[in-house]
Amino acid sequence: xxxxxYVHGYSEREASRLSDQANTLSDLLHHDTVYxxxxxxxxxxxxVGSQTRFLVENSPEAHFTSVDISAESLExxxxxxxxxxxxxxxxxxxxxxxxxxxxxxxxxxxxCFLLEHLPNPVEALACxxxxxxxxxxxxxxxxxxxxxxxxxxxxxxxxxxxxxxxxQAELGGNSLxxxxxxxxxxxxxxxxxxxxxxxxxxxxxxxxxxxxxxKLTFIAMVEGVREQALAAGMMSEEAWDKGIGxxxxxxxxxxxxxxxxxxxxxxx
Length: 268
Fold this sequence. Notes:
The chain is an alpha/beta fold and 268 residues long. The protein has one domain (8-267): Rossmann fold. It has helices at residues 12-30, 52-58, 71-84, 121-130, 155-170, 181-187, 207-223, 226-231, 237-249; strands at 40-44, 63-68, 89-93, 106-112, 132-143, 149-151, 191-203, 256-267. Strands 1, 2, 3, 4, 5, 6, 7 and 8 form an eight-stranded mixed β-sheet that branches. Helix 4 (121-130) links the parallel strand 4 and strand 5 (132-143). Mean pLDDT is 93; it is low at 6-11.
């Protein structure tokens, strides 16, 4: 994946958003991701290490090799895990379509929020299968922006989210990919595939989620494509500002947010 195909960019603001997202969603997404002591795990597309920190905490006796194409992101990941005191992870720059690993080198593969940015996710999953041992499992986690809804909701608020979906599609990605995890894993040759939806529901009785998910994860993600959306004429500046304001209105006392992530597991 080329660096410019990442719709959210590589800014410090985006790194902070990824951290907020991971912190908020850690239990929902990772409570059942545990790897056997002594096993070798490949984390493909680790980015700045936002998910890595939870993987190594959950499986302290497994060893992780975390790979990303971006040297800048890897440096941030190394710094993050060094501060955490993690000793069971190695970071390596690499392209998942041309991995510098032997066939069947890893017991497990983990990929999170990567497939959505690729124009050829089945090919990516097949490349990951090559380095996975027979009988080993791949775990893939993706969101689906089409699953989002809120209350109150306006046409402009929905349009801003559609701008994110369209911007990502123009880069060859698919932010609706969560609903496709099952067929994608099957097409890539994995068997015994199981996908579980992980719904986020937020209202004002959950202030940590209002802040961590609604504001710092989802709305921040939408706000990140403002320049692309306005430059492409997807919305007027006035309509965009109203839409973002309406999204924030859904974080008020009488507002609600809903979004669904999907976690798939398949066996080689």
